[in-house]
């Protein structure tokens, strides 16, 4: 009897289980954390509106510093976050992440009025620090809760929450700021985050082994699928093997390309909508949200196609991941070039092209993002911490670079330079990943096996 038959036999009859509750909580956690991550992109438009007598007189450069300040803290705890998740489990870290972000969101309006842009930067740094646990913890929890047969689909559901959170935040922020003032944006985020934290404390769990809610049949199904039956050992991290792995270095490069393109658009799009296209704040939010909603929707068919292709064995897992990532990076690069040549002042064409740029980026969900787990599931959290740490230095640089390039934010020619640069970075980084990337499970994923093999050879020599 093969492993697949064994897994199929142990699969519980019920289609809904405790693992789906975990997936739902992680999905909503992603929605909320990304809402709190991107809310400043819309809020700052209202905070600097000259028509409001209580607005802040911040220069473009100051606004760029505020928008990038989140990432100053975000990069710090990425690698420690991966190690902490492996040692203590992902639940406590993800709980701290959302709770701290919620508390700071409630304090940002006070910080703005009494401490100016410097204190707002401080608040955003704290939020970034705590969100450093987000992706390492998510990878850790997915690796323990999601069976192999459901990894692409349920993983897409969880990580798709990032784009849904982004879209919803951009969509409602303009209306909230218009009717109740910009502080209400942060109050709403903080309140929802506090509610989620309470719910996850009661419903969440580090693993099926530690869950008090899960049934034996579902626990056995998950453990058998993942090969985690019995007590799990804490494996030493093979740092040298990781850092000298060319496929892993290609992940770093792909992640850097992703962050430059994504966060340039994320932080600058509301300003582009307002100053170049002349769209008011309410329509600005709706139009800025449309690309991310399209990305969220497109992630599901891409995830299904990827799973179906692998199930039918039409392509190797490495080829499948590279094709997905190429859709996610080459596609937006081409669309950005098209955006650069779109008719001046044509809002419809610009919004359609921006939507295509961001929607196609959904390919990265079934591209490089899953390769961490493919290559070395035992160290997926640590690897994600490393790539996310390095790539998010790019998230700091990208909006600052846009601020330097945009000497006149109302000049379409300056924006053309921003789009061309992002397009070039997408192409170069994905080309490197396509050449050197691999989803083959690495030998150093099982360091104990290597040690055992060496010991066995020594024993044979002695004999």
Structure notes:
With 463 residues, the protein is mostly helical. The protein has one domain (17-227, 237-454): MFS general substrate transporter like domains (Growth Hormone, Chain: A, Up-down Bundle), CATH 1.20.1250.20. The protein is built from 18 helices and no strands. It has helices spanning 3-10, 18-47, 60-74, 78-88, 90-131, 134-145, 151-180, 183-203, 216-226, 239-243, 246-275, 281-311, 317-340, 347-360, 368-375, 380-405, 412-436, 447-462. The two termini are 36 Å apart.
Q: What order do the SSEs take from the amino end to the carboxyl end, as H and E?
A: HHHHHHHHHHHHHHHHHH
Gross morphology is globular
Uncertain residue segments: 450-463
Percent in helix: over 70%
How many domains? The number is 1
Per the CATH scheme, the topology name is Growth Hormone, Chain: A
% residues in beta strands: under 5%
Tally of individual helices: 18
Mean pLDDT: 81
- What is the end-to-end distance? 36 Å
Largest sheet: none
Query: Tell me, what is the CATH class?
Result: Mainly Alpha
Could you say which structural class the secondary elements and strand pairing correspond to?
A: mainly alpha
Number of strands: 0
CATH architecture: Up-down Bundle
Family: Belongs to the major facilitator superfamily. Sodium/anion cotransporter family.
GO molecular function: symporter activity
GO biological process, one term: monoatomic anion transport
Subcellular location: Membrane
């Amino acid at each position: 009897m093969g492993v697949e038959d064994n897994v199929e036999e142990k699969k519980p009859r019920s289609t809904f289980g405790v693992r789906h509750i975990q997936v739902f909580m992680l999905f909503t956690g992603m929605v909320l954390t990304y809402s709190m991550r991107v809310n400043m992109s819309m809020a700052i438009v209202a905070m600097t509106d000259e028509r409001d007598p209580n607005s802040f007189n911040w220069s473009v450069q100051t606004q760029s510093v505020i928008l990038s300040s989140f990432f100053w803290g975000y990069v710090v705890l990425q690698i420690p976050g991966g190690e902490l998740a492996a040692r203590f489990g992902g639940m406590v870290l993800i709980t701290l992440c959302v709770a701290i972000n919620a508390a700071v969101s409630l304090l940002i309006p006070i910080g703005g009025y009494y401490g100016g842009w410097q204190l707002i930067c401080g608040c955003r740094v704290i939020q970034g620090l705590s969100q450093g646990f987000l992706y390492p913890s998510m990878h850790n929890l997915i690796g323990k809760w999601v069976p192999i047969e459901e990894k692409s689909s349920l993983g897409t559901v969880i990580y798709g929450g990032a784009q849904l959170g982004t879209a919803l935040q951009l969509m409602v922020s303009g209306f909230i700021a218009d009717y109740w003032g910009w502080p209400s944006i942060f109050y709403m985020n903080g309140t929802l985050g506090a509610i989620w934290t309470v719910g996850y404390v009661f419903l969440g769990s580090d693993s099926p082994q530690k869950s008090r809610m899960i049934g034996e049949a579902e626990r056995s199904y998950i453990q058998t699928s993942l090969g985690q039956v019995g007590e799990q050992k804490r494996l030493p991290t093979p740092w040298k093997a990781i850092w000298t792995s060319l496929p892993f270095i290609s992940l770093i490069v792909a992640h850097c390309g992703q962050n430059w393109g994504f966060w340039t658009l994320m932080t600058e799009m509301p300003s582009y909508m307002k100053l170049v296209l002349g769209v008011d704040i309410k329509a600005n939010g709706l139009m800025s949200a449309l690309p991310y909603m399209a990305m969220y929707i497109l992630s599901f068919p891409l995830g299904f196609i990827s799973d179906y292709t692998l199930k039918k064995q039409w392509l190797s897992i490495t080829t499948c991941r590279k094709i997905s990532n190429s859709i996610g990076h080459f596609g937006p690069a081409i669309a950005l070039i098209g955006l650069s040549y779109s008719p001046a002042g044509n809002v419809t064409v610009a919004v359609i092209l921006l939507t295509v740029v961001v929607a196609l980026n959904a390919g990265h969900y079934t591209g490089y993002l899953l390769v961490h787990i493919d290559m070395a599931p035992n160290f997926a959290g640590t690897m994600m911490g490393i790539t996310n740490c390095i790539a998010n230095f790019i998230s700091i640089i990208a909006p600052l670079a846009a601020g330097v390039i945009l000497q006149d934010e109302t000049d379409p020619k300056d924006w053309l330079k921003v789009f061309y640069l992002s397009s070039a970075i997408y192409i170069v980084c994905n080309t490197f990943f396509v050449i050197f990337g691999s989803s083959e499970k690495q030998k150093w994923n099982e360091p104990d096996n290597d040690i055992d093999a060496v010991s066995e050879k020594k024993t044979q020599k002695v004999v």
